[in-house]
Design goal:
This protein has 87 residues and is mainly alpha-helical. It is 52% helix and 0% strand. It is extended, with a radius of gyration of 22 Å.
């Protein structure tokens, strides 16, 4: 059985000019925007986000500490909280 080999012509490859961006640079108003977003969240959303992202707790621990019925319930709640953040 012979495989169909395709050759890519040189015109397929193009060189693009890119603007150099420092991904570690924060916009000047970064903290103001972050505070505004976080201030609109409920206390329960802040707790779950803090436990997961800052305290690096497992889902089982988060569910137990914050009173969710299961780790999946806690994950779903975090997802709903993050949906409120996305602008």
């Amino acid at each position: 059985m012979q495989k169909n080999k395709r050759k890519i012509g040189e015109d397929f490859y193009e060189v693009y000019d890119c603007i150099e961006v420092n991904v570690f640079e924060e916009p000047e108003d970064y903290y103001e925007k972050l505070n505004e977003i976080l201030s609109n969240l409920s206390e329960s959303c802040l707790e779950i986000i803090k436990a997961f992202y800052y305290e690096l707790k497992s889902w089982e621990t988060i569910a137990q500490e914050l009173g969710y019925t299961s780790a999946n319930s806690a994950k779903n709640q975090k997802y709903k909280c993050l949906k409120r953040i996305v602008v």
